[in-house]
Amino acid sequence: MLQEFRNFIARGNVMDMAVGIIIGAAFTAIVKSMVDDLINPIVGLFMGGVDFTNSFLVLSGEVAADASLATAREAGASVFAYGAFIMAIINFLIIAWVVFMLVKSVNKAKDAAQRDEDAAPEAPAAPAGPTQEDLLAEIRDLLKAR
Questions:
Q1: Residues 91 and 71 in one domain
Q2: Which of 5, 78, 117, 145 could bond 59 through an S-S bridge, CB–CB 3.0 to 4.6 Å?
Q3: Domain that includes residue 33, residue range
Q4: Could you tell me the pLDDT band of residue 123, with boundaries at 50, 70 and 90?
Q5: What is the pLDDT of residues 53-67, one digit of tens each?
């Protein structure tokens, strides 16, 4: 059973999947930072500094009128955090757009490389050597000459 497990892990597709997950996690951190640190401030600037993150309705419990979402949750209030959901949708759309543009550019580069490879002139074929019959005939003639 241990040998079967080793064979399973050693297969290329399992290793490729593991590498993909690791790279995906690192890429997620990069995209999240780009969205949080670069894109959201620009979106907020165009929307007049609007940030929906702290928009919520208190369903039950006592919370000050100017309390943040984190404060309301810490107070134990039951909240309907629609603002965080709206921001999650906005972040998803931005991330999806960035990933779409990345995949589009990678596919474009792959297509260009494939076209270059297809358009490359073929190397001239090496001259054909003598066939087996030609070699045997030559050996026969040499043996007759002796």
A1: yes
A2: 78
A3: 1-48
A4: low
A5: 778 888 888 888 778
